[in-house]
Design goal:
Layout: H1 7-11, H2 22-30, E1 32-37, E2 42-44, E3 52-66, E4 72-78, E5 83-84, H3 86-91, E6 99-111, H4 112-121, H5 127-138, E7 145-146, E8 149-157, E9 161-168, E10 173-180, H6 182-185, H7 188-202, E11 212-218, E12 221-227, E13 232-233, H8 234-241, H9 246-265, E14 268-269, E15 278-280, E16 286-288, E17 295-296, H10 317-320, H11 327-343, H12 353-362, H13 368-371, H14 377-386, H15 398-405, H16 411-416, E18 422-427, H17 432-447, E19 454-461, E20 464-467, H18 476-484, E21 493-499
Antiparallel strand pairs: 1-6, 2-6, 3-4, 3-5, 3-6, 7-8, 8-9, 9-10, 10-12, 11-12, 13-15, 14-17, 15-16, 18-21, 19-20, 19-21
């Protein structure tokens, strides 16, 4: 019994609500009503409108769950401090089960017409919905499906999103699903930007950028469906292996650099390059992920944002000052990552966001040559050049950066030292899915090699061919005939790719 507790005090003990501040708890309690039910009385009826949710304050309720044949499968019991009816309230769907009082019951009731406007006015208050939904997604017997995807379990959690492993039943493909927190759903600008993340990354076809497959909107929030990555992120890797040997550091930096160079060519600035957003697999393959605050640089040319965006520990000076940023802000952040990798320590030590912002904006970076003697000259020059305060003085040419991270000398001289191999795969159209998967695997493996890169061309017919960028390959038909010695009418698709150092 909890007769001596106020509604605010009681809600502070309820999972989901317990994450709220005192003021938000008061707002939530002020929008609620205390209801009483007798034994056997219905709190909710199946197929009724989802216009209310209850927090059980005293007693317990029964929820009969039936199978598809109409037989009782289980009698679920919701006890004191638990919530019932929240999913229908969030989604506006009809109830999928009856809820019946088991003895005398008191609840704290929240009506849709009062709770939803409150969430809109105070987005942080909506965090409790994310906690409740997260529990339903993670607990056995809870929510098992998001759109067409069957959930397998949670694999990660960040400040603004939770990530779950799932499988597409039809394709039998394992994926990762990122769920946007409800406190951000009610921030229209952030919600649109989150969805724009999916559209942005889906348009970036590169072996060093995480692939986005799909989006779903369910349970009053948004989900982005991505490839399921193996291994860990660079942040976890550094906790175990820092400082990183220069050769390994250069390999990781080159691959992140290739991802950024590709994104920049497509007008995309990442804006949040940091170890937590860099995935590293056991074979040394690297993928850049989480373009959650990325934006098309063309949209902001000539304007100052006035908003500090990015993680303070890796933020570029111009971003720290709220100025307009371009791809050189990503290069600065990559330089900070490089410094941490080879030294095992942060670029600046700070205890607050304000201290980090001030340090990046005004303090000169430590002299890497005094901290780590004997680094390769190219890596040293990259760190020094990428950490210059003024964007105009900072490294900005990706060919030059490739040369520095590949060792000594220019990118052109490095290219001359490399070998390349051309492979042709001839296959029937119905096998295209398997071939695409094979090519993607090869791209990841080659990208993990020092100075490795892949050019991938698809010849759709004997008369036409195209590259990843959509530009036609001149003379493709004659090239095919010369290489094969014949024109086979049964072969409609040819895939070719080569390894080289340079842009694809």
């Amino acid at each position: 019994m909890n007769d001596g507790m106020t509604t605010v005090d009681f809600l502070a003990t309820v999972p989901g609500f317990d994450a709220l501040s005192g003021e938000d708890l008061k707002r939530a309690a002020g929008s609620s009503a205390i209801l009483s039910f007798n034994d056997g009385e219905y709190l909710m009826r199946k197929a009724s409108e989802g216009d209310i949710m209850h927090v059980v304050r005293e007693g317990s309720v029964r929820v009969p769950v039936f199978d598809q044949t109409g037989h009782l499968r289980v009698m679920a019991v919701v006890e004191e401090g638990e919530i019932v009816g929240e999913m229908a309230l969030l989604t506006g769907d009809r109830r999928n089960a009856d809820v019946i009082a088991d003895g005398q019951v008191k609840t704290i009731a929240f009506a849709r017409e009062t709770i939803l406007p409150l969430l809109g006015e105070h987005p942080p208050l909506a965090r409790f919905l994310t906690e409740i939904l997260g529990r339903r997604l993670e607990e056995s017997g809870g929510i098992e499906q998001v759109g067409k995807y069957r959930l397998l379990g949670k694999i990660g959690e960040g400040a603004t999103a939770k990530v779950y492993e799932a499988i597409h039943p039809g394709l039998n493909r394992t994926v990762a699903i990122k769920m946007l927190g409800h406190e951000l759903v009610y921030d229209k600008n952030f919600r649109e930007r989150f969805l724009d993340e999916a559209r942005t990354i889906a348009g970036l076809g590169h072996p060093n950028i995480v692939q986005v497959f799909d989006t779903e909107q369910a349970y009053a929030t948004c989900f982005v469906v991505m490839e399921r990555l193996e291994g860990s992120n660079l942040l976890d890797y550094l906790k175990l292996h820092a400082p990183v040997p220069p050769e390994k550091a250069c390999s990781i930096l080159r691959q992140v650099g290739e991802a950024l160079a590709y994104a920049h060519r497509h007008g995309i600035v990442h804006r949040d390059v940091k170890p937590a957003n860099i995935a590293v697999d056991e074979d040394g393959g690297v993928k850049l992920m989480d373009f959650g605050i990325a934006a098309r640089s063309a949209n902001s040319v000539g304007r100052m944002s006035g908003i500090v965006e990015g993680t303070p520990r890796y933020i570029a000076p111009e971003a720290a000052l709220g100025h307009m940023v371009d791809g050189r802000a990503d290069i600065y952040a990559l330089g900070v990552v490089a410094f941490e990798m080879v030294t095992g320590r942060p670029l600046f030590k700070a205890t607050s966001v304000a201290e980090y912002v001030q340090a990046h904006a005004t303090r000169p970076p430590p002299d890497i040559t005094k901290i780590h003697r004997g680094l390769p000259e190219g890596l040293t020059k990259f760190i020094q050049g990428s950490l210059r305060k003024k964007p105009a003085e900072r490294l900005g040419d990706w060919n030059e950066i490739r040369g520095l991270l590949g060792g000594t000398g220019s990118a052109a001289s490095a290219l001359a030292m490399l070998e390349e191999r051309v492979i042709r795969v001839r296959y029937r159209p119905e096998a295209s899915g398997r071939v695409d998967k094979m090519v993607a695997t090869l791209k990841r493996s080659v990208s993990a090699l020092p100075d490795g890169d892949v050019a991938d061309a698809l010849l759709s017919s004997p008369q036409a061919a195209s590259t990843d960028s959509g530009a036609p390959i001149k003379g493709a038909t004659g090239w095919f005939a010369k290489m094969t010695g014949k024109t086979d009418p049964n072969v409609s698709t040819t895939r070719s790719f080569e390894t080289f150092d340079g842009d694809t």
